[in-house]
């Protein structure tokens, strides 16, 4: 059970993550956030101390939301191709549902911080590396189960599949064209089908 | 032949595009740029008048550079698969050569402006739509020439191929891992091979 103080902190971070997904972390200010959250600046300062602490807390909060909305639902899918699909379909679903006001929080903030060395950049990169690792492990499990051909490295397959859903996100945020989600799901499905091992493919045909 | 005034303007815009590729367009200021370019603020103001005019001129200047570095070299390749490859290989090459200090100018600035409605956002979207259209037309020409299977729409194929090279760019800028360029080229080549029409494939085998 969260204390009142923790609940307040959560609400502030929900708001901060939504704002940062649209306009980036640099434009978050304790003053601006206090005014939007209808709190005193000193009240908000008591929670975060500095702009950098606020930014780091916002990044970690966004990672928890991403975990809850994309990773955890996929964990209930069977290992292998079903989980790979659940991760990528879940990612697109998370964009379509507008979990963050500005699309993927990590797309906005990684582009913003890519050339700003420091702890905020490192934290963003850490969470993105963890998403890459999770997706790669899911593909590797599909290979161990004989559902995905082992002729291509799991890392490379994960890169291709991730590329489809990330590019759909950025295209959608810029052009507002929802057809790109159909394209991305078709691309993911076709790529997974193309990687079905010959034996499994002939079983399916027989 | 450029006048001195035009040459000065070009140098300022080269600098502005490099800075914006790293840190975005919002952080460009006439004062800051004047100081980096060792010009007077009033001298720089005479070229651009307002921050928005400076931003628009920077976007258009970056588009000219992109055209010169990626589109024009590919125009010398034969139509069809060779030109599709030249565009995507050329895009990766443009990132590897560090044409802009911060990776792809349009990756940084489209993430920055995606939720800031206005003329700057519209101009960025226009240039990106033109890159999409150019790539889609190159794929469609490959289909007309019988080099690319027509079972999948040119638009969808262009989306997939673009996804590989754009994702390589963002991954490289964040993680500094050049292996991703190998992955992206392999992914593009394998996808193009997988789209070879049955007749052409059997000719090649024979």
Briefly summarize what is shown.
The structure is a homodimer of 206-residue chains. In chain A, helix 4 (51-75) runs parallel beside helix 7.
Considering the chains and any ligands shown, give keywords for the structure.
homodimer; 206 residues; mainly alpha; Tetracycline Repressor, domain 2; 10 helices; 76% helix; 0% strand; elongated
Protein model, in words:
- The structure is a homodimer of 206-residue chains.
- Chain A has a domain of 141 residues: Tetracycline Repressor, domain 2 (Orthogonal Bundle).
- With 206 residues, the first copy, chain A, is an all-alpha fold.
- In chain A, 76% of the residues lie in helices and 0% in strands.
- Chain A is elongated.
- The model of chain A has no long low-confidence stretch (mean pLDDT 93).
- At the A-B interface, helix 6, helix 7, helix 8 and helix 9 of A face helix 6, helix 7, helix 8 and helix 9 of B.
Order of helices and strands of chain A: HHHHHHHHHH
Question: What is the name of the CATH superfamily of the domain at 61-201 in chain A?
Answer: Tetracycline Repressor, domain 2
The gross shape of chain A turns out to be elongated
Highest CATH level, the class of the domain at 61-201 in chain A: Mainly Alpha
Main sheet of chain A?
A: none
- CATH architecture annotation of the domain at 61-201 in chain A: Orthogonal Bundle
* DSSP summary: helix tally of chain A: 10
Structural class of chain A: mainly alpha
**How many beta-strand segments of chain A?**
0
Beta content of chain A comes to under 5%
The biggest chain-chain interface is: A-B, 41 and 41 residues
Distance between the termini of chain A: 54 Å
Would you identify the regions of chain A where 5 or more consecutive residues have pLDDT less than 50? none
**What is the arithmetic mean of pLDDT of chain A?**
93
CATH fold-level topology of the domain at 61-201 in chain A? Tetracycline Repressor, domain 2
Radius of gyration of chain A: 19 Å
Quaternary form: homodimer
